[in-house]
Structure formats: structure tokens, C-alpha cells
TrEMBL record, chain A:
<feature type="compositionally biased region" description="Acidic residues">
    <location>
        <begin position="327"/>
        <end position="343"/>
    </location>
</feature>
<feature type="compositionally biased region" description="Basic residues">
    <location>
        <begin position="372"/>
        <end position="381"/>
    </location>
</feature>
<dbReference type="GO" id="GO:0005730">
    <property type="term" value="C:nucleolus"/>
</dbReference>
<keyword id="KW-0853">WD repeat</keyword>
<keyword id="KW-0539">Nucleus</keyword>
<protein>
    <recommendedName>
        <fullName>WD repeat-containing protein 74</fullName>
    </recommendedName>
</protein>
<keyword id="KW-0597">Phosphoprotein</keyword>
<dbReference type="InterPro" id="IPR015943">
    <property type="entry name" value="WD40/YVTN_repeat-like_dom_sf"/>
</dbReference>
<dbReference type="GO" id="GO:0030687">
    <property type="term" value="C:preribosome, large subunit precursor"/>
</dbReference>
UniProtKB/TrEMBL annotation, chain B:
<comment type="function">
    <text>May be required for ribosome biogenesis.</text>
</comment>
<keyword id="KW-0698">rRNA processing</keyword>
<dbReference type="GO" id="GO:0000460">
    <property type="term" value="P:maturation of 5.8S rRNA"/>
</dbReference>
<dbReference type="InterPro" id="IPR044281">
    <property type="entry name" value="IMP4/RPF1"/>
</dbReference>
<protein>
    <recommendedName>
        <fullName>Ribosome production factor 1</fullName>
    </recommendedName>
</protein>
<keyword id="KW-0690">Ribosome biogenesis</keyword>
<dbReference type="GO" id="GO:0000470">
    <property type="term" value="P:maturation of LSU-rRNA"/>
</dbReference>
<feature type="compositionally biased region" description="Basic residues">
    <location>
        <begin position="14"/>
        <end position="26"/>
    </location>
</feature>
<dbReference type="GO" id="GO:0005730">
    <property type="term" value="C:nucleolus"/>
</dbReference>
Length: 381, 336
């Protein structure tokens, strides 16, 4: 079990409550679930890394429990009751230095401190769809939902949000544009926040400016956007909608750069790799797909038998690319040696011609050689 | 004659080569080989010798030597007897690309998934099916008759006139009245062309394209009208995970215990992603022979999308959507 979990580079949570680990290099998928207690209320809603070293995965279920899974040991190490199903499902899970932050659909955001049972509570409004943590400033979280605009909270001063977004202006019919924030992303190295809505809009907000309305608004498709992720390269965002359409949008202009093909069902989980140009997507069609962001091609496709809710990519993908890099280094060295050898020789071009000539002869003999091989075969017959 | 000499000399050298090469092949190959040499190159000759087939102009009767001719004839007979068995013709179903989502019957995870999904209430015998059949607004004659005939085929089915009502408002009312299925037949230009099948408490919604509808009047050699007995259900060839979901959807339309007295059977046969519906009455003449009469309407369905949750085409999440350019690129890949 430990060996299996140590090689997994992608972690997924399914609707049946099973935590799945996939190793893309070895092309294997493993199920990690507690013995004999598979039930639908164990359905995984949210997943998060338990620590910066990515050795623990926190799994939040529908019944209100948050389980800790250790990737080194390969077993669930702890379970914590963090609310009850009457409050709604988990919409966000995050970890700061010494505490865990959970948010449920009814708007109750709780900060659970390690070791003690006291919690700090914040009410973020009803109908929350997503709560996301700022990776560079871990005490800041953003929440948003259906008719619940984007709000950024500082957990050290939890009484009022530090930023509340304002809705866009009325549309061309002078009607109020409905608000439905489905997923949130913090743009690294800046204060900006990207959201995707159920009304197929992608909005970028900048709290550092006095403007509370979105700085940029882009539209994609006709179906609700369900998931969003920011790749390592700046300036773009990957979004997925409920029809299985994945698109890369440019955040400078608000235009679609390209679409990633292959998905047949709604996108439930989307994550870009922290350093490589890869994006992992999972959804209701029971497949995990890894696309490359540069040429938009499908790199890996894995069938996992249950509908998938969330995906977590570890930085461990670097293992496979490390092997390739070392191979390249060897080849480069070999080439350098060859170059030196060639440089010491006097007439480089003639030798290459001779080599070409030899190659031609080789091909000519090759044909005869094949004939000879045929003859030999017949003799054997 | 020069050419002949040349050929004879070549043939001599060739013969030596041949005797070393092929001891089984009869030396009587010489005569036709000489003719062939001049016409074709070395390579083709090699090809003709390397394969088991003789050059096309050759026939056993041309060999002058009686003993050699006889041995050749016997060899030919032997080969015909040992001929390979009849080849199985390649069909698209044979060449179907293996689908990795094909369900393995012993798979625990899939069994658990199916045991706890939206149809588990039906398959655990907790609910009985009750179907509401309706159409799009203002249906014309053919669709109306189709709905009536469907209601005779599916037990506990009720046909209601649509009256331009919104489906999202119809659904809560159906749930409160205890319906388990909502079936909406869409009509275009006086012909039914679409079917929305919505499993009611909170179940998946499937949208099908309907084609080739034949009403009872148009059936040839049909039997009398179906009776009120509960028919048996046959589901053929739903192998993949998606196919399983759709198959269970069809199975849950009919009550659990078929009344074998009625001798009626409804078949949903999946082939190449098209689902063929037929309704028959059967009678066993003896243990091995069955006679069947087709009753009831017949139609063909093709799945367009499967949506999780009740009907909500704008904001619902789709489990499977048919994307023509991505999914129909290969003629041998099927999804159901």
C-alpha cells in the first residue's frame, strides 16, 4: 500500500467515496479506501494538500468528515468531524500553518485549530459554491456562490470581507445580470482574482484598484463553467464547462486561445501542474485526462470506474521528466565528444560524403542481402 | 535461339539454385519459369516461387511427364483437402475497437456504483414504475397515435396533453403524484423525432433521437393488439458503462415481474450505437421452435446526451454528450 501510494502523482476523489491514486509514468491506478465502509455519503467533495511537502491529502466527504491520507504510508491516518450534512456539502478546504479552514454550502466558514476544539466562524452568505485560498498569503480566502458575489476574507480580521465584488452593469436590455460564481483562482504574483460563473463568464477582479467591478470579463460557450485553473505560465486560464468543453483563455484580451478536446462529460475537477505545461481534468464521464498546454494534445487518458469529483496534481511529475532530462544530458555529452573528435580531424566534409557513399552501398547490398536471406529461408524450407 | 540458349544457361544456374533452395517444389517448375523469366524480372519470379500459389498460367495438365503430373495432381488434392477453414468475414461489429469502459461482471466498484445509483430504488424493489407520456406542444396525428400505442406497450403508462407547459414545472408535480418516469416525445413536421426520458425523483435524463417509427397499422403480418399483461424485457448488447446506465434506464420502465401468461416481450437491441425497439408475442411450438408475431410500434433510438439530474438542459451537468466530430471519426468505435 505504501509503495503504491508513493508512486502516485495524481490523486482523485470519486462519488463512491474512493480516493484514487494514479501513476502516469507506470500507467497504473490504485484505489485507496477504508475497508468495507463504501457508501454514498462518503462521497468526496473537496480535496487539498495537507502540507507544503505534499505528503498528506485531506479528503472532505458529504457526511461532514475530513480524512487525512498519508501518501508515504498509504493509509488514512486521521478522521475529523467538521460539520454535519444539514449544512450542505463542503465547498472548500484549505490548510494554514496550524489550522484547517472548511466552508460549506450554507455559508459557514470555520477555522479549525490543531489540537483544540475551538473554532472561529465566519458567515459568508448563503449558497456558496466555492472557497479558495490564496497560496501566497495563506490567511486570505475568497468565497463565492449563487447570488453570492466574490468576497475576499482575511482570517485575522474575520468580521468583514476585505473585498466584495460589485456586479457588472446592466446588460443591453437594461436587466440585472445574474451572479453565480462557480470557481475562483488567485493569480500568482499579483492581487488579482479570476472567477468563472455559471452564466459562462470569466471575470478578473483587482482588489488593489478602487474599481470593484471586474477588470476583465470574457465569455466562453453557452453552458455553465464549472471549473477553473491557472497554469504556471502567466496570462492564461483554463476553464471547463458542463458539456465537457475545456478552453484556454487569454487574460490580457479575454479571447479563447484554444480548446482541449476529448471530454464527453461535465468537468468537475481541473488542475494545472505547478511547473510543467500540463493540465489534469476529471469529470462525470469517469476518465482522467492529462493534456499538454503547449500543443493542446492529449497526453494521458485513464479510465477510473466512478464519476470523479476532484483532482490534485503533485509536483512529482518531475520524476518522469527528470529521467528524460538526464537522458538528454547524456546525449548532449556524447555529441560534444563527437564534436571534439570531428574537430581534430582534418577533412570533415569528405568523410561525411564517404559515409553517405557507404550508406548507399549498404542500402544496395541491403537489397541483395534481403534476397540472400530469402534464398536462405527457402533452403531451410 | 540466342535467347533460348541464354535462357537454358540461366535456367541451368537457376536449377542449381532451386535444387538447393526448394527440394519439395517440383522441378517441373522449369518450363513455365523459363517463359516467365523473359517477361518478368527476378523479383517477381522469386515472389511466385516463395508463395504457395502457382503462377496463373500453370495447370497440372501441361506437365508432359506422366509420373510428375500424377504426383503434382496428388499434391494438389492434398492441399485442397487441408485447405484452411472458411474465413470469417470481417464485419464492423467484429472489428469494433475495444472500449476500455466495458463492464466486467465481477467488478466490485462498478457493482457498488450501480447498487447505489439513482435506479437502486427500483432494482431493490422499493418502487413500482409509473410513466407519464407526453409530447412537445401541439402534436399532430402520427405522434398522438404513437403515444397511445406506447402507452399500451408500457404498463402503468398515462398519456397527457402537453398544453405548452414547461417541463421544469411539470417535473415537481409528477414527483408529487408518484410518477417514476417522464417521457416526452418531440415532434418535427408531423413525425416524432426525439425522446426525452427523465427518471423522476432525481434521476438521469436521457435525450434520444427517434427515427424509423412504424405504427401498428403499418406492420406487416402483425398479431392482435397487445393485452394488459406485463411483458418481458430483453436488453441486448449494452456492454460499456454508458450502455449499462442506459440499459438500466430502459429496464426500470417496466414492472419487475413479467407475466409469462401474456407471452409478450419488449426488446431493446443495441447495435452500433442504435437501439432498436421491438414488441413481439411469442409461442413455443415445441421445445426448440418458437413462433413470433410482431405487435406494437417499432422505432429506433440513438442516444444524444445523458444528463445527471432531472431535466435541465441549460444548467444541468452532462454525464455524456454526443460530439460528432470527436466521437464519430472512426467507423469502428462505438460508445454504448
Amino acid at each position: 500500500m505504501a509503495a503504491k501510494s508513493q508512486i502516485c502523482s495524481v490523486w482523485l476523489g470519486s462519488e463512491t467515496g474512493i480516493l484514487k491514486g494514479v501513476s502516469l509514468t507506470k500507467k497504473q491506478a490504485f484505489n485507496f479506501c477504508e475497508m468495507s465502509c463504501m457508501s454514498r455519503d462518503q462521497e468526496v467533495c473537496v480535496m487539498a494538500w495537507g502540507d507544503p511537502h505534499e505528503s498528506e491529502v485531506l479528503v472532505g466527504s458529504v457526511n461532514g468528515t475530513v480524512k487525512t491520507f498519508s501518501t508515504d504510508k498509504g493509509i488514512f491516518t486521521a478522521t475529523r468531524e467538521c460539520g454535519d450534512p444539514s449544512q450542505g456539502r463542503f465547498t472548500g478546504l484549505a490548510v494554514t500553518d496550524s489550522s484547517m479552514i472548511t466552508c460549506v454550502e450554507s455559508g459557514l466558514l470555520k477555522v479549525w485549530k490543531e489540537g483544540s476544539t475551538e473554532t472561529a466562524e465566519v458567515n459568508v452568505g448563503n449558497g456558496v459554491c466555492r472557497m479558495q485560498q490564496n497560496q501566497s498569503q495563506r490567511h486570505r480566502v475568497a468565497t463565492g456562490g449563487k447570488e453570492n458575489p466574490l468576497k475576499v476574507w482575511d482570517l485575522e480580521r474575520p468580521d468583514k470581507p476585505i473585498f466584495t465584488a460589485k456586479n457588472v452593469a446592466h446588460d443591453w436590455l437594461d436587466m440585472r445580470v445574474p451572479v453565480w460564481v462557480r470557481d475562483i483562482g488567485f493569480i500568482p504574483d499579483s492581487d488579482k482574482i479570476v472567477t468563472c460563473t455559471g452564466h459562462h463568464q470569466v471575470c478578473v477582479y483587482d482588489p488593489s484598484t478602487p474599481q470593484r467591478r471586474p477588470v476583465l470579463e470574457a465569455q466562453f460557450g453557452e453552458y455553465p463553467l464549472t471549473a477553473l485553473s491557472l497554469p504556471a505560465s502567466q496570462g492564461t486560464v483554463v476553464v471547463g464547462n458542463s458539456h465537457g468543453e475545456l478552453a484556454i483563455l487569454d487574460l490580457r484580451k479575454g479571447l479563447v486561445c484554444g480548446c482541449l478536446k476529448g471530454l464527453a462529460g461535465a468537468v468537475r475537477g481541473l488542475q494545472c501542474h505547478p511547473s510543467l505545461p500540463l493540465v489534469a481534468s476529471c469529470g462525470l464521464d469517469r476518465f482522467l485526462r492529462v493534456h499538454s498546454l503547449e500543443d493542446r494534445s492529449l497526453q494521458h487518458k485513464v479510465y477510473l470506474k466512478s464519476r470523479l469529483n476532484c483532482v490534485l496534481l503533485s509536483s512529482r511529475e518531475l520524476e518522469s521528466s527528470n529521467a528524460d532530462v538526464s537522458g538528454d544530458v547524456e546525449e548532449v555529452k556524447a555529441e560534444e565528444e563527437e564534436d571534439e573528435v570531428w574537430d581534430t580531424m582534418e577533412t570533415v566534409t569528405e568523410k561525411s560524403k564517404k559515409r553517405a557513399a557507404q550508406k548507399d552501398k549498404a542500402t544496395a547490398t541491403g537489397v541483395d542481402g534481403e534476397k540472400k536471406r530469402k534464398l536462405i529461408k527457402k533452403k531451410v524450407m | 535461339m540466342d535467347s533460348n540458349e541464354a535462357t537454358t544457361s540461366e535456367s541451368v544456374s537457376k536449377k542449381k539454385g532451386k535444387t538447393k533452395k526448394v527440394k519439395r517444389k517440383v522441378k517441373s517448375d522449369e518450363a513455365p519459369v523459363q517463359e516467365m523469366e523473359q517477361a518478368e524480372g527476378e523479383e517477381t519470379e522469386k515472389k511466385s516461387e516463395s508463395g504457395p500459389c502457382f503462377p496463373p498460367t500453370f495447370s497440372v495438365s501441361e506437365i508432359k511427364n506422366k509420373q510428375r503430373r500424377h504426383s503434382m495432381f496428388l499434391k494438389l488434392k492434398e492441399e485442397k483437402r487441408k485447405a484452411p477453414p472458411k474465413e470469417v468475414p470481417k464485419t464492423i461489429e467484429n472489428q469494433r475497437i475495444y472500449d476500455e469502459t466495458t463492464v466486467n461482471p465481477e467488478d466490485e466498484e462498478v457493482a457498488f456504483d450501480e447498487g447505489t445509483d439513482e435506479f437502486s430504488a427500483y432494482f431493490n424493489r422499493l418502487t413500482n414504475p409509473k410513466v407519464l407520456i407526453t409530447t412537445s406542444d401541439r402534436p399532430r396525428g402520427r405522434t398522438v397515435r404513437f403515444c397511445e400505442q406506447l402507452a399500451t406497450v408500457i404498463p402503468h403508462a398515462h398519456v397527457y396533453y402537453r398544453r405548452g407547459l414547461a417541463l421544469k414545472r411539470v417535473i415537481p408535480q409528477c414527483v408529487s403524484r408518484g410518477f417514476t418516469y417522464l417521457m416526452v416525445i418531440n415532434e418535427d413536421r408531423k413525425v416524432p423525432n426525439g425522446l426525452v426520458l427523465c427518471h423522476l425523483p432525481d434521476g438521469p435524463t436521457a435525450h434520444f433521437k427517434v427515427s424509423n417509427v412504424r405504427l401498428r397499422k403499418e406492420m406487416k403480418r402483425r398479431g392482435k393488439d397487445p393485452t394488459e399483461h406485463v411483458p418481458e424485457v430483453i436488453l441486448n448488447n449494452f456492454t460499456t458503462r454508458l450502455g449499462h446506465s442506459i440499459g438500466r434506464m430502459f429496464a426500470a420502465l417496466f414492472p419487475h415481474d413479467p407475466q409469462f401468461v401474456g407471452r409478450q416481450v419488449a426488446t431493446f437491441h443495441n447495435q452500433r450505437d442504435f437501439i432498436f425497439f421491438r414488441f413481439h408475442r411469442y409461442i413455443f411450438k415445441n421445445e426448440k421452435k418458437v413462433g413470433i408475431q410482431e405487435l406494437g410500434p417499432r422505432f429506433t433510438l440513438k442516444l444524444r446526451s445523458l444528463q445527471k439530474g432531472t431535466f435541465d438542459s441549460k444548467f444541468g451537468e452532462y454525464e455524456w454528450v454526443h460530439k460528432r466530430h470527436e466521437m464519430d471519426s472512426s467507423r469502428r468505435k462505438f460508445h454504448l
